[in-house]
Design a protein that fits this description.
Layout: H1 27-32, H2 40-52, E1 63-66, H3 73-83, E2 88-93, H4 100-113, E3 117-120, H5 124-138, H6 143-160, E4 164-167, H7 171-176, H8 189-196, H9 202-205, H10 225-231, E5 234-237, H11 246-257, H12 282-291, H13 295-305, H14 311-322, H15 329-336, H16 340-348, E6 356-360, E7 363-366
Parallel strand pairs: 1-2, 2-3, 4-5
Antiparallel strand pairs: 6-7
């Protein structure tokens, strides 16, 4: 029997790896306890000393901030520009599976903070070839997104000779306690390879018999060590120096900068990945197939640690949202050029037999699955959500994020 943490819902088989101690508490929960004991004023002063070495009047930018239309981008830029007094260059990798809310947030981010902005746009046809390959081979349609957003800031840092990259929180620290806050862990190529990309590098994707060429993958190559060392590139995480609390931070950004969220079918968190119609949707289903748990488990475990929900209530939340169908499968199939039946067959190949049992041809049940519940009460308050219908019509590959010029409303003709 797999050991589960007595406090949250992570178990010893977590894909990032964790340790459960003699008291039955996981390493992620133990490291989270540091948030209530560390002197965060002192930690922030340490951060000030670090960034002071990179402030300069001789260049237009003194750091790079990777941003998106979701997650913690508003909070990071607010801290870096308004509290630390730096001159950031904002960079973003276009993941292509964009929601209208994400496009709007990204436009609002640029306006609110008046920062220069560079976005990487790869050929959508190449993205489709890569997605088709990583979906069928690894059960991961999101590989190009993770690979792109973790390497593009480093490429720009080398090209423009901007040595400091400032990220938000470190996933391994926040989820599973891979490090202590006091370790001051920084960006590494090794972590990207082992955990962000799950060991899948560009060279592993192409195959003799497919239509992917080496040039199609050049955008995802990490810069050579010699180039990184010559510029002195380093990436630091604000989460080591600030008491990181995504929900509380998002509420501040909603109030201060009108950050927007959207309701998602497979989790209660309306802010975290509101910019993507794939990540918390079809991609999350594949996570459920492979690892036996969904993104909602991450969100519930986080909120249990912050003592905003109980484990008993969290179990109901996970039960409800994990059983919800994805909303945007049709959009994905149309974009990739596959039918839903073929997609389901491909996804079934990646079901983990530890968690799933095939009872008939392509009919699967989850082992040790509790009885489904059909509704769950409100979890947390999420203001300023998009009023558009949850069923968006398509991905927004490129968008302004604003209505300009404003549409002229014409008086409707009466026919009867």
């Amino acid at each position: 029997m797999v050991l589960e943490c007595k406090r949250c819902f992570y178990n010893a088989n977590h894909p990032l790896g964790l340790v459960i101690d003699d008291e039955g508490i996981c390493s992620g929960c133990r490291v989270h306890e540091e948030k209530d004991h560390l002197d965060w004023n002192h930690r922030f002063e340490e951060l000030k000393k670090i960034v002071s070495r990179y402030k300069t009047d001789k260049a237009k930018y003194d750091c790079i901030i990777p941003v998106s239309g979701g997650k913690d981008s508003f909070f990071i830029v607010d801290v870096v520009k308004n509290r630390l007094g730096m001159k950031p260059l904002l960079v973003s990798y276009n993941k292509l599976f964009n929601s209208s809310v994400g496009i709007e947030n990204l436009a609002n981010l640029r306006v609110q903070f008046d920062c220069d902005f560079i976005q990487k746009n790869i050929n959508p046809e190449i993205a489709k070839k890569i997605t088709r390959r990583t979906l069928y081979k690894y059960g991961n349609p999101y590989w190009h997104c993770i690979a792109g957003e973790t390497v593009f800031p480093v490429q720009i840092a080398v090209q423009l000779k901007i040595p400091l990259i400032i990220w938000g929180a470190h996933q391994g620290l926040e989820q599973v306690g891979m490090y202590s806050h006091l370790d001051n862990v920084e960006m590494t190529r090794r972590y990207r390879h082992d955990h962000d990309l799950f060991g899948i590098e560009p060279k592993d994707i192409s195959d003799t018999y497919d239509d992917l060429e080496d040039n199609d993958l050049i955008n995802f190559l990490y810069p050579p060590f010699t180039d990184i060392e010559s510029v002195g590139v380093r990436g630091i995480y604000l989460g080591n120096y600030i008491r990181w609390d995504p929900y509380a931070q998002h509420l501040k950004m909603v109030k201060k900068f009108k950050f927007k969220g959207m309701r998602l079918s497979r989790t209660f968190d309306c802010y975290d990945y509101s910019d993507s119609l794939l990540y918390s949707d079809l991609h999350d289903v594949l996570k459920y197939y492979k690892h036996g748990y969904s993104k909602v488990t991450d969100h519930v475990s986080r909120e249990i640690r912050f003592k905003r929900i109980t484990k008993e209530f969290g179990r109901k939340i996970i039960n409800y949202f994990s059983s919800q169908n994805p909303t945007y499968v049709e959009i994905f199939c149309r974009w990739l050029g596959v039918d839903e039946k073929s997609l389901q067959l491909a996804m079934n190949n990646h079901r983990n037999p530890i968690h799933w049992k095939e009872i008939d041809q392509n009919i699967w049940i989850k082992k040790a699955s509790p009885k489904r519940i059909t509704k769950v009460e409100k979890v947390l308050h999420y203001p300023n959500l998009s009023k558009s219908k949850i069923n968006e019509n398509d991905y927004i590959t490129v968008g302004k994020g604003v209505d300009w010029p404003k549409p002229v409303l014409k008086k409707k003709q009466k026919w009867l």
